[in-house]
Each structure stands twice: as structure tokens, then as C-alpha cells.
Design brief:
Number of helices: 16
Family: Belongs to the CobB/CobQ family. CobQ subfamily.
Number of strands: 27
Function: Catalyzes amidations at positions B, D, E, and G on adenosylcobyrinic A,C-diamide. NH(2) groups are provided by glutamine, and one molecule of ATP is hydrogenolyzed for each amidation.
GO molecular function: ABC-type vitamin B12 transporter activity; catalytic activity
Pfam families: CbiA, GATase_3
Keywords: Cobalamin biosynthesis, Glutamine amidotransferase
Strand content: 25-35%
Helix content: 25-40%
CATH architecture of the largest domain: 3-Layer(aba) Sandwich
Shape: globular
């Protein structure tokens, strides 16, 4: 293919499949020897990672970077919004926290941020044969079009062709695809090169007449119909989008006589919930998200994950009765593991001088660890290495909280707490270390009385992730018109695409 091109993958809705399709296209191109990079101008997510260049980006872009054979970089996601409440988000620009905004106040920053994202994309396109961009939400949000920098605003500024993916599992996908084009003004419509249907189950012959009518109505073809696959669940952009009935992943049967049951508390502002995915990859480990106390009663292990709003989520734990249930679990010497914000909640006290709570706060923690935390206005980012349970480990840190006093033994070299049944660490990604995870699972099973549980000797989290990326590429290769896709990437949208003369489109002329 022409070694110069770009593409924007937009979606009819959030969680339509944009992140997965971008990863699949990237992996497919990479396997063909094409130098390719991912890009998301603006992401809104509390699932993030620390990059090798020391910044913070959305986890989906880190996953897409792995699909390209690249280390994550701040260039792949120059603007990240991290919601701390329904109205306020922290803004991360080029990997670094840069204030807080409301939905309205953010509009005053978008002109400057559009320059940031277009400059970053231009630089990426100079280094790679192809850049595959991911939109945010839906381009049909016409109330936001004037300040858009992730969908059609980016497409116009960077001269990008666009394909729109729709999730048929939600229902109404043909109307969603048609309506997405119809509400756009003519200049934006001209950039929509085609459609992709995602998560299809059933007989393709039944869908074919609808796709033909969609082509007749819009002048645009459907480039492919991607079937549903229950094997895809790692690194979901929405950390809970792959969860069915609260269960994470597709647990394989145990190697021993017993299952190990893990309850991950689904905090209102949960962040980096993907930490639990490494546990869910293990045979015989059943991982479930929980939001009420009764679900903890039959759990062997409780995990308190990260939070973007630690103080308010701690108050939610108390209001729901989950705090008492976790304390009772620990009193029975059953294991509790806290990660980042969850680790901070397990301590005796959290002092916030105005980082999360504008007026400041000094609150009691759950008191399960001899630990005191003070928030710092400057966010700590790092990619540390060390030793835990006698084996080498690595991870990443994203937190405002600092340990100001700790009376428990350390879980890691210079970090974390190990009080026997209650453990904690600021490190994300710690459970992705295979040797450490096996040792930890053996210990957790013993502490919870699951003596019939046996950890698998050979589970590789990295291999599981690679397998899913290859599956995404297989789906692209087998179910998309890749020749048409190549043409769009290299040459843009066809120049003779019709304008849908709907009332909405006409009103915006």
C-alpha cells in the first residue's frame, strides 16, 4: 500500500468498538510490515498508564501501541480527561496534569488544545507510514461540534477520511449509522468514507438487504461486519464494558479441586480497574465486580482498586455498608488487597489539602493498615521496578497521595504494606508480573482456606494480551474489505460522495 496515510475511526456511540477496531487495524498493518501508530486526540477515561517518556495516557492507547509493536508514548494521546465527579475532570496535556475543568469551562481551552493535537498528529505522521486515529464518543454530538477536537473537528483540521463503526448488539445500528451521517453538515459528511458493523451475531444473509439499503440511502458502503467474540475482554476502554453479570473475563476451570473467588469493589470513580484482569486470566480464579455487601460474604479475596475520587469513594463505602463488610472479611483473616486509591482507603487517615475536595478534608480510613496518607497537589508518575515476595517485579504509579507514616512491613522494596491478611500498594500493573502473581495466589488461597486451589504454572499475562491483539487483527483481515480500507487510508474518502439532504443537514448549510 501507499506508505503514507491516515484514518479516523469514529463511532455511533461510546463503546461502539472504536478502540478495538483501531487496535485490530493497527495490528493487521503491523503484521504486513507497515510502520503504524495509534492516536486519540482527546480521551476521557480513568483507566490510564504511565509511558516510557514519563507521562500519562489512556490505557486503550497503550494497548493500541502494543498492537503496533511500540512502547506507549504521550504522543498517542495528547489530551486526557479524568473525571473526578459528574461535572469536574482533571485535564492531562501531553502526559501531565494541567488543571481541572467543567464541561462548560473546557470549551474555553479547546482552541489551544486543537493546536496541540494537530501538531502532535503532524509529527506522528512524519515518523510513521500510517496513523490510525480514534474518535471520542460520537461525531453526531452536534451540540459539541464547534469545539470538537477529537472527531470531525480533527478530521477537518488534519484532512482525515473517516469510517464509522456501530454496535449492532445494542440494536438500531442502521438508524445510528444513517443518522450519524445525516446530522453532519455537508463538509463533514464528505469525510465519511464508509461503515463497519461490530458485534454481529446471526446469519449475515439477513443483514445484507439492510446494508444495501444503507448504501442506497447514504452512497456509502459497509466495509465489513465484524462478528461477536467472547474472547475479547482485556484492556477495554470502558473498564467495565466487557463485564457480563459482574464477571470479569471468561474464567477457565480450576487445575485443583477448588475455585478462588475474588470480589473487586466497583467504586463510583473506579480507576485502573484493569489491574484485576491479570487475576481473571488465571484458571480457577473467578473475578466479580461487586457494589453491595452481600457479594463480599462468599468471596475469598476482596480487592479495593484505584479511585479518581478517593475521599468521596471512601464515604460511599461507608454509606453502602461495604466498609463494614470489608472490615468483617479482614477480621476473619481473609485477605484484602488494596491498590493505589484502595490502598490509601485501607489506612488510618487521609489528609487532603484541597486536591480532591476543594475545601480540604481530613478523614479516617478503614484502619486495616497502619498507614497515614497526605495528598500532594503534584501528581506522582513513575514506572518503578523492585522485588516483591522474593521475585523481580515492575509496575507504574499514578497518584496524588503520599505515605507520611507506615507501621506495617513493606510489600515491595520501599513501597506498599504487608499486614498478613491485608495488603496494599500504590503500584498498578503489579499483578501482571507472572511469577509474583502465582506466589500471591498461593498465599491468598491458603489465607482464605482454599487449600484445594492450585495456581497454574504457566499463565502468561503478556501472552494473553498478544493473543487478543492477534485475534483483533484476524477479525479485520477476515471480515473487512481490506482492499477498500487500504484505499481509504491512502487516498481518503471518495470525492463524489452524496450529501444527505435531511432537515438537520440542510439547516446547517
Amino acid at each position: 500500500m501507499d506508505p503514507s496515510g491516515a484514518l479516523l475511526v469514529a463511532g455511533t456511540t461510546s463503546d461502539a468498538g472504536k478502540s478495538a477496531l483501531v487496535a485490530g487495524i493497527c495490528r493487521w498493518l503491523r503484521r504486513r510490515g507497515v510502520s503504524v501508530a495509534p492516536f486519540k486526540a482527546q480521551n476521557m477515561s480513568n483507566n490510564s498508564v504511565v509511558t516510557v517518556d514519563g507521562g500519562e495516557i489512556g490505557r486503550a492507547q497503550a494497548m493500541q501501541a502494543h498492537a503496533c509493536g511500540l512502547e506507549p508514548s504521550v504522543a498517542f494521546n495528547p489530551v486526557l480527561l479524568k473525571p473526578g465527579s459528574d461535572r469536574i475532570s482533571q485535564v492531562v496535556v501531553r502526559g501531565r496534569a494541567d488543571g481541572h475543568v467543567s464541561a462548560l469551562s473546557y470549551r474555553t481551552r479547546t482552541a489551544a488544545l486543537l493546536e496541540v493535537v494537530t501538531d502532535t498528529l503532524t509529527e506522528l505522521r512524519s515518523r510513521f507510514d500510517v496513523v490510525v486515529c480514534e474518535g471520542a464518543g460520537s461525531p453526531a454530538e452536534i451540540n459539541l461540534r464547534a469545539t470538537d477536537l477529537a472527531n470531525m473537528g480533527l478530521a477537518q483540521a488534519a484532512d482525515l477520511p473517516v469510517i464509522v463503526v456501530g454496535d449492532i448488539d445494542r440494536g438500531g445500528v442502521l438508524a445510528h449509522l444513517f443518522g450519524t451521517v445525516a446530522v453532519l453538515d455537508p463538509a463533514d459528511q464528505a469525510r465519511i468514507a464508509g461503515f463497519v458493523i461490530n458485534k454481529f451475531r446471526g446469519d449475515p444473509a439477513l443483514l445484507a438487504p439492510g446494508l444495501e439499503q444503507l448504501r442506497a440511502l447514504t452512497g456509502r458502503s459497509t466495509l465489513g461486519v465484524v462478528p461477536w467474540s467472547d474472547r475479547l475482554w482485556l484492556d477495554a476502554e470502558d473498564s467495565l464494558s466487557a463485564v457480563a453479570d459482574g464477571v470479569l473475563g471468561r474464567p477457565a476451570p480450576p487445575l485443583g479441586e477448588q475455585w478462588l473467588r475474588v470480589a473487586v469493589v466497583r467504586l463510583p470513580r473506579i480507576s485502573n480497574a484493569t489491574d484485576a484482569e491479570a487475576l481473571a486470566c488465571e484458571p480457577g480464579v473467578a473475578v466479580r465486580y461487586v457494589t453491595e455487601p452481600s457479594r463480599i460474604l462468599d468471596a475469598d479475596v476482596v480487592v479495593l482498586p484505584g479511585s479518581k475520587a478517593t475521599v468521596s469513594d471512601l464515604a460511599w463505602l461507608r454509606a453502602t455498608g461495604l466498609a463494614d463488610a470489608i472490615a468483617a472479611h479482614a477480621e476473619e483473616n481473609k485477605p484484602v488487597l488494596g491498590i493505589c486509591g484502595g490502598y490509601q482507603m485501607l489506612g488510618r487517615r487521609i489528609t487532603d489539602p484541597g486536591v480532591e475536595v476543594p475545601e480540604g478534608a481530613d478523614v479516617a480510613g478503614l484502619g486495616l493498615l497502619d498507614l497515614e496518607i497526605a495528598f500532594d497537589h503534584e501528581k506522582h508518575l513513575g514506572t518503578p521496578t523492585g522485588t516483591a515476595l522474593g521475585v523481580p517485579v515492575r509496575g507504574y504509579e499514578i497518584h496524588h497521595g503520599r505515605v507520611v507514616r507506615s507501621g506495617d512491613p513493606q510489600l515491595l522494596d520501599g513501597e506498599g504494606s504487608d499486614a498478613g491478611a491485608v495488603l496494599g500498594t500504590h503500584w498498578h500493573g503489579l499483578l501482571e508480573n507472572d511469577a509474583f502473581r502465582r506466589l500471591l495466589l498461593s498465599r491468598l488461597a491458603e489465607q482464605s482456606g482454599r487449600t484445594g486451589f492450585r495456581p497454574a504454572p504457566d499463565t502468561s499475562f503478556a501472552a494473553e494480551r498478544t493473543a487478543q491483539l492477534d485475534l483483533l487483527a484476524d477479525l479485520v483481515e477476515q471480515h473487512l474489505d481490506t482492499a477498500a480500507l487500504e484505499h481509504v487510508i491512502s487516498h481518503g474518502a471518495p470525492v463524489d460522495l452524496p450529501v444527505l439532504a435531511t432537515g438537520l443537514a440542510e439547516s446547517r448549510r
